[in-house]
Specification:
This protein has 304 residues and is of the alpha/beta class. The chain has helices spanning 16-25, 39-49, 65-73, 92-100, 113-137, 148-165, 179-186, 188-205, 229-245, 277-293, and strands at residues 7-12, 31-36, 53-57, 83-87, 105-108, 169-176, 211-216, 219-225, 249-250, 253-254, 259-265, 299-301. It is 47% helix and 20% strand. Residues 142, 175-181, 183, 188, 191-192, 195, 217-218, 292, 296 line the site of guanosine-5'-triphosphate. The site of guanosine-5'-triphosphate has 17 residues, from β6, α7 and α8. It catalyses: 2 GTP = 3',3'-c-di-GMP + 2 diphosphate. Residues 167-304 form the GGDEF domain.
Length: 304
């Protein structure tokens, strides 16, 4: 999706005429267009903009379209972008190879404007459903927060950013204190409401760039990009105070709720090569364990 909210189509073709014709034919469609005139530029634009559809020339002078398509499909972040080949006459073997390579469709030059638009619309419609399903599969049904599956993927990519840009990444693990007893005393639906409101309090207190996830049961995990251990610990202490200030009651009886927090940061590792999603989560979990064993309702960092 482009910044304008329109779906984005990347045209990769060696011929300036084709860019002109595709641009003119798709003018009436609600899409934003990006143009690349060779494979290298196309791969770079695809990685930068993550378009919703790629129209790819089969016969480019530098790298041929099949090779570029295989390259895009081998990259996890680009593999789900549908590719339509733009081609002169294709024999059956080439068509089969194109589909095997991951193309969703092909259009034969010279294009018929109505046919090109219909094929682009169909591919974009499928991509929209695909994106919707992907995001739904990554959202926790009770809280509307990101789920554990999303957390692992996102943390792995934040660790790569950390290594590339030398900016710290921190993780906070949270567990609601004595949650079993809250459930047992006041019922499962009261427990559900506590989980929801604790999650909402995190979203209210965090930055847009922070990623708040339900890790499972009564546990949450937060990813804080470009955040030092000291800042992450300060945030965890604030979140801890926020949870304790939430007001829950059964009838007129107040029900106190607190949570414990464990913080880990990439900076605490002597060797950056040791920093992975798993080691960060493991370190945060260890810090959470010390917060629990030191009396709960507190935050502890990896070096405490
Ligand atoms: N209401 C509700 N309860 C859940 C849900 N998922 C798990 N639980 C319950 O959450 C409780 C988790 O308790 P624990 O974290 O193991 O222990 P605790 O009582 O919080 O104790 P400490 O973590 O040591 O403070 C269990 O009783 C689970 O049955 C859920 O979606 N909703």
């Amino acid at each position: 999706m482009s910044d304008t909210g329109l779906q984005c189509v990347l045209v990769i073709d060696g011929s300036p005429d084709i860019h002109y014709i595709v641009g003119a034919q798709l003018k009436s469609e609600r899409v934003s267009l990006l143009h690349a005139h060779g494979a290298e530029e196309g791969a770079a634009l695809a990685a930068e903009h993550l378009p919703d559809l790629i129209l790819l020339d089969l016969d480019m002078p530098d790298t041929d379209g099949m090779t570029l398509c295989a390259q895009l499909k081998a990259d996890r972040t680009l593999a789900d972008i549908p590719v339509i080949f733009l081609t002169g006459n294709m024999d059956v073997a080439t068509k089969v190879k194109a589909f095997d390579m991951g193309a969703v469709d092909y259009v034969t030059k010279p294009f018929d404007a109505i046919e090109l638009k219909a094929r682009v619309r169909a591919a974009l419609r499928t991509k929209r459903y695909h994106d919707l399903l992907t995001s739904k599969a990554q959202i926790d049904a009770l809280t509307g927060l990101w789920n554990r599956g999303y957390l692992s993927d996102r943390l792995s990519s934040e660790v790569s950013v950390m290594a590339r840009e030398a900016s710290p990444v921190s993780v906070i693990m949270v567990d609601i204190d004595h949650f079993k007893s809250i459930n047992d005393t006041h019922g499962h639906s009261f427990g559900d409401m506590v989980i929801q409101q604790v999650g909402e309090s995190f979203v209210r207190s965090c930055r847009e760039s922070d990623v708040v996830c339900r890790y499972g049961d009564d546990e949450f995990a937060l990813i804080l990009r470009n955040t030092s251990g000291a800042s992450a610990l300060a945030l965890a202490e604030r979140l801890c105070t926020d949870v304790a200030a939430l007001e829950f009651s059964r009838g007129r009886q107040p029900v106190p709720v607190t949570a414990s927090f464990g913080v880990a940061t990439s900076d605490q590792f002597d060797d950056l090569a040791e920093v992975t999603a798993e080691t960060l989560l493991g370190a945060a979990d260890k810090a959470l364990y010390s917060a629990k064993s030191q009396g709960r309702n507190r935050a502890r960092g990896g070096q405490d």
